[in-house]
Amino acid sequence: MEPSTRTSPHRHAERVSHEDALIHAILDEAVVAHIGFDNDGPLVLPVVAVRIGEHLYVHLSTGSGAALRAPMEVCVTATILDGAVLAKSWFHHSLNARSVVVRGRAELVTDTAETLRALAATIDRVAPGRSSASRPPSARELAATAILRIPLAESSAKVRTGPPVEDEADLDLPFWSGVVPLRIVAGQAQPGPGVEAPAPATAWSVP
Amino acid sequence: MEPSTRTSPHRHAERVSHEDALIHAILDEAVVAHIGFDNDGPLVLPVVAVRIGEHLYVHLSTGSGAALRAPMEVCVTATILDGAVLAKSWFHHSLNARSVVVRGRAELVTDTAETLRALAATIDRVAPGRSSASRPPSARELAATAILRIPLAESSAKVRTGPPVEDEADLDLPFWSGVVPLRIVAGQAQPGPGVEAPAPATAWSVP
């Protein structure tokens, strides 16, 4: 992406990237994102956001505030937490994380084929291949679903990795310092009553 | 909290709560939150938000856009992902999650004691007790840190738990359905060079 004045933070500018491949990889891994928009003041809601090509798609109920307000300016931010960074000083404590900020105008998708592609991608994000292993929406269900489409044109990634920064003067302090890696893992799948089909793969590894 | 028109969503209203104990518990467990505010359009950024009493505190760099704009209206949303909900139909796929939305006016903290309390809580959120096991900030470091304080007066929680909703007509479809529990776990702690102190406990369990 081309950097814009709206996606070029001052803070830790060296950690910010406008590289498409990195932006895509983060958006394709994060399952929960947060969408922000004005709704009688700033409002931020958790959503599942999926990327298809150079657009991000977010599904909502047709009755939701966001669906009723579209088209509108939004910001969708996806954050993947990779680790806790414990430094010798409070000041250098941090989190290792990869995040993408997408700013742009969200429009309602009106084309049924595009709606179905976005919904299939959403289902497959949670469990790969799952859109072929569950029932597609009826006309009534489709009518209850609104899809927002946001272009990736104005987006940026921010990545922090590696050990804590330490001030030279702190190095001899007797405290532990280092990184505790963090990740999301899946537990034992809990089938509903009477379900005999094998449990599907999900986007998360079992520890 | 008293419900306000700004924290009473239409969608799945039965999953929404204004109970203080629930709101506090979610805010006290989530490590990463997202703050939204207007900065030449909606902007959403990942932050660590900590609760002390009836306020939420978010630390930022003094040079950041949010710090420069305060006091300002914000929304801070914390989301804890608990599971993937796989239904027989696309439509009833969901995520089990607990989230809190806090809307209100963010003000810069000017009192040093309050700043230190908020920073200590932030460090301890990541690793309990860690604020006593690392060096507190110098005057220069404090000057580089801005703390936003947001009242919890206008906040609400939303919780989805349990198995998928299924339509009666879908029950005999041959697909797996159920819940895959998800959680964040810590991996093996990676000490920095020369660190010999024992690794601290963190907010996450080791699988």
State the gist of this model:
Two copies of one chain form a homodimer. By secondary structure, chain A is of the alpha+beta class. Chain A has four helices and eleven strands; from the N terminus they run βαββββαββααββββ.
Structural summary, described in words:
The structure is a homodimer of 207-residue chains. With 207 residues, the first copy, chain A, is α+β, with helices and mostly antiparallel strands. In chain A, strands 1, 2, 3, 4, 5, 6, 7, 8, 9 and 10 form a ten-stranded antiparallel β-sheet that branches. Chain A is built from four helices and eleven strands. The mean pLDDT of chain A is 93. Chain A is globular, with a radius of gyration of 20 Å. Chain A has helices at 20-29, 65-69, 112-126, 139-143; strands at 16-17, 33-38, 42-47, 49-52, 55-61, 72-86, 94-108, 145-151, 155-160, 178-186, 190-191. At the A-B interface, strand 2, strand 3, strand 6, strand 7 and helix 3 of A face strand 2, strand 3, strand 6, strand 7 and helix 3 of B.
Topology:
Two copies of one chain form a homodimer.
Chain A: E1 16-17, H1 20-29, E2 33-38, E3 42-47, E4 49-52, E5 55-61, H2 65-69, E6 72-86, E7 94-108, H3 112-126, H4 139-143, E8 145-151, E9 155-160, E10 178-186, E11 190-191
Antiparallel strand pairs in A: 1-9, 2-3, 2-6, 4-5, 5-8, 6-7, 6-10, 7-8, 7-9
Query: Most extensive interface, residues per chain?
Result: A-B, 97 and 97 residues
Number of helices of chain A: 4
The overall strand count of chain A is: 11
What class, by secondary structure content of chain A?
A: alpha+beta
Would you tell me the overall average pLDDT of chain A?
Answer: 93
* Assembly type: homodimer
The coarse overall form of chain A would be: globular
Strand content of chain A: 35-45%
Give unreliable regions of chain A as ranges: none
Helix content estimate of chain A:
10-25%
